[in-house]
Design brief:
Elements (H helix, E strand, L loop, with lengths): L3 H34 L16 H4 L1 H10 L4 H53 L1
Helix pairs in contact: 1-4
Protein backbone atom coordinates (compact mmCIF):
# COMPACT_ATOMS: atom_id res chain seq x y z
CA UNK A 1 0.00 0.00 0.00
CA UNK A 2 1.21 3.50 -0.81
CA UNK A 3 2.08 5.63 2.17
CA UNK A 4 0.40 9.00 2.62
CA UNK A 5 3.72 10.82 2.16
CA UNK A 6 4.39 9.34 -1.29
CA UNK A 7 0.76 9.79 -2.30
CA UNK A 8 0.79 13.44 -1.18
CA UNK A 9 4.01 14.11 -3.11
CA UNK A 10 2.49 12.50 -6.21
CA UNK A 11 -0.73 14.50 -5.93
CA UNK A 12 1.10 17.80 -5.39
CA UNK A 13 3.53 17.05 -8.22
CA UNK A 14 0.70 16.33 -10.69
CA UNK A 15 -1.11 19.42 -9.41
CA UNK A 16 1.98 21.57 -9.97
CA UNK A 17 2.59 20.22 -13.48
CA UNK A 18 -1.05 20.67 -14.47
CA UNK A 19 -1.02 24.19 -13.01
CA UNK A 20 2.00 25.05 -15.20
CA UNK A 21 0.16 23.65 -18.23
CA UNK A 22 -2.85 25.81 -17.31
CA UNK A 23 -0.63 28.90 -17.19
CA UNK A 24 0.95 28.02 -20.55
CA UNK A 25 -2.49 27.30 -22.06
CA UNK A 26 -3.86 30.60 -20.79
CA UNK A 27 -0.94 32.52 -22.29
CA UNK A 28 -1.32 30.63 -25.58
CA UNK A 29 -5.04 31.42 -25.64
CA UNK A 30 -4.44 35.12 -25.05
CA UNK A 31 -1.72 35.17 -27.72
CA UNK A 32 -3.98 33.37 -30.21
CA UNK A 33 -6.85 35.77 -29.55
CA UNK A 34 -4.52 38.71 -30.18
CA UNK A 35 -3.31 37.05 -33.39
CA UNK A 36 -6.92 36.62 -34.48
CA UNK A 37 -7.87 40.22 -33.72
CA UNK A 38 -4.64 41.67 -35.14
CA UNK A 39 -3.46 39.21 -37.79
CA UNK A 40 0.20 39.06 -38.71
CA UNK A 41 0.96 41.36 -41.61
CA UNK A 42 3.39 39.86 -44.08
CA UNK A 43 5.85 42.36 -45.47
CA UNK A 44 7.67 40.04 -47.82
CA UNK A 45 7.92 40.89 -51.48
CA UNK A 46 6.08 38.51 -53.77
CA UNK A 47 6.97 37.53 -57.25
CA UNK A 48 4.16 37.41 -59.78
CA UNK A 49 2.73 33.93 -60.15
CA UNK A 50 1.88 34.46 -63.82
CA UNK A 51 4.28 33.60 -66.58
CA UNK A 52 6.77 36.35 -67.23
CA UNK A 53 6.30 38.23 -70.47
CA UNK A 54 9.90 38.50 -71.68
CA UNK A 55 8.92 40.86 -74.46
CA UNK A 56 7.77 43.40 -71.87
CA UNK A 57 10.99 42.93 -69.88
CA UNK A 58 13.16 43.69 -72.89
CA UNK A 59 15.01 46.98 -72.16
CA UNK A 60 14.28 48.20 -75.68
CA UNK A 61 10.56 48.12 -74.87
CA UNK A 62 10.87 50.31 -71.77
CA UNK A 63 10.97 53.50 -73.82
CA UNK A 64 7.97 52.37 -75.86
CA UNK A 65 6.07 51.52 -72.67
CA UNK A 66 6.85 54.93 -71.18
CA UNK A 67 5.67 56.69 -74.32
CA UNK A 68 2.41 54.70 -74.34
CA UNK A 69 1.85 55.19 -70.60
CA UNK A 70 2.01 51.51 -69.72
CA UNK A 71 3.00 50.85 -66.11
CA UNK A 72 3.87 47.27 -65.10
CA UNK A 73 3.83 48.03 -61.37
CA UNK A 74 0.03 48.40 -61.25
CA UNK A 75 -0.45 44.72 -62.11
CA UNK A 76 2.21 43.72 -59.58
CA UNK A 77 0.65 45.78 -56.80
CA UNK A 78 -2.77 44.25 -57.53
CA UNK A 79 -1.30 40.76 -57.32
CA UNK A 80 0.62 41.71 -54.19
CA UNK A 81 -2.56 43.00 -52.55
CA UNK A 82 -4.36 39.77 -53.43
CA UNK A 83 -1.54 37.75 -51.89
CA UNK A 84 -1.60 39.90 -48.75
CA UNK A 85 -5.34 39.34 -48.41
CA UNK A 86 -4.77 35.60 -48.73
CA UNK A 87 -2.03 35.85 -46.07
CA UNK A 88 -4.36 37.74 -43.71
CA UNK A 89 -7.06 35.13 -44.20
CA UNK A 90 -4.59 32.30 -43.56
CA UNK A 91 -3.22 34.06 -40.46
CA UNK A 92 -6.74 34.48 -39.04
CA UNK A 93 -7.55 30.86 -39.82
CA UNK A 94 -4.38 29.67 -38.10
CA UNK A 95 -5.13 31.88 -35.09
CA UNK A 96 -8.64 30.42 -34.83
CA UNK A 97 -7.18 26.91 -34.87
CA UNK A 98 -4.71 27.93 -32.15
CA UNK A 99 -7.52 29.32 -30.02
CA UNK A 100 -9.39 26.01 -30.29
CA UNK A 101 -6.25 24.04 -29.41
CA UNK A 102 -5.46 26.23 -26.40
CA UNK A 103 -9.01 26.05 -25.10
CA UNK A 104 -9.02 22.27 -25.48
CA UNK A 105 -5.79 22.13 -23.50
CA UNK A 106 -7.36 24.20 -20.74
CA UNK A 107 -10.54 22.12 -20.72
CA UNK A 108 -8.47 18.98 -20.16
CA UNK A 109 -5.96 20.25 -17.61
CA UNK A 110 -8.25 22.27 -15.33
CA UNK A 111 -10.27 19.20 -14.18
CA UNK A 112 -7.02 17.22 -13.76
CA UNK A 113 -5.60 19.99 -11.59
CA UNK A 114 -8.76 20.33 -9.50
CA UNK A 115 -9.04 16.59 -8.94
CA UNK A 116 -5.43 16.12 -7.84
CA UNK A 117 -5.24 19.27 -5.74
CA UNK A 118 -8.47 18.48 -3.86
CA UNK A 119 -7.24 14.94 -3.20
CA UNK A 120 -3.87 16.26 -2.02
CA UNK A 121 -5.63 18.51 0.49
CA UNK A 122 -7.79 15.61 1.68
CA UNK A 123 -4.76 13.35 2.20
CA UNK A 124 -2.93 16.07 4.07
CA UNK A 125 -5.87 16.70 6.42
CA UNK A 126 -6.27 13.01 7.34
Amino acid sequence: MITNGVRTIYLYLVSFISLMVIVAGTLATINSILDFVYPYESYSRYYPSKEIDYEVMDPENFEIMEEEGINGTEELSREENERREIDRYNAKRQAAKSIATSLALLMITIPVYLFHFKNALKVEVK
